[in-house]
Write the structure tokens for this entry.
Amino acid sequence: MIAGRPRTLVLRTAGTNCDRETVLALEQAGSEVDVLHLHRLLEDPDRLARYAALVVPGGFSYGDDVAAGRVFGLELRHHLLAPLRAFVDRGGVVLGVCNGFQVLVDTGLLDGTADAPRRERGYALHANASNRFECRWVTLRAEECACPWLEPGDVLPMPAAHGEGRFLVRDTAVLERLRANGQIALRYVSSGAPDAPAEYPDNPNGSVDGIAGLCDPTGRVLGLMPHPERNVSPFHHPLWTRQPRRSEGEGLRFYRRMIEFAARSA
């Protein structure tokens, strides 16, 4: 158990630009936070032992050269996959937001930890179906899944801002496997009817089955495309004047639950 307030590491590299608001959200959620450049972690992977959670924030790492998150993800996969898997195995929590989700997909961490069966991934984040960058508020619903800090049925409005967020699977067998493993963590839903499947623009990228977030089979690694750190204050929502009075944004609740779980798990 890590004594005191749980510590979170926010990992950045060239092109990352959402690290500051991520830090502010995590601090408000009750965590002590350090920001570290990838190269410093490559020099000393043992640093991970100091933390209960690791967050890969949004942005445009390496300018999204080749593909969004691809270079950052492959750096982690080739140089830090074993330490990252050990971090998850001992109870650490990993979160990837937007570009961070794209990074996690390429690391292979979402497929499972070291003792999980190795198989082809079978899914990817592709260019939006609209073939353009989508920047809009969307509504997410937490699903029955392996992720222990998500409350099934919880409705979470968040802004999305990405050009490559369309979740695709190779075939129906891959989709059924994700469902069976409890890996489908968050779905886009209609803003006016959270029980209804989302069509464009509520599903801003055309993701199959409305998938907005995916976790690994342990539930301790989670990636999602929309930005919870951009809905921390009750005044962040563009329709806040028409909503019932609330003391915080739904994104802060998301981060608080994650940090509380990380503190218990680490």
Remarks:
- Helices lie at 19-28, 38-43, 70-89, 99-107, 172-180, 250-265.
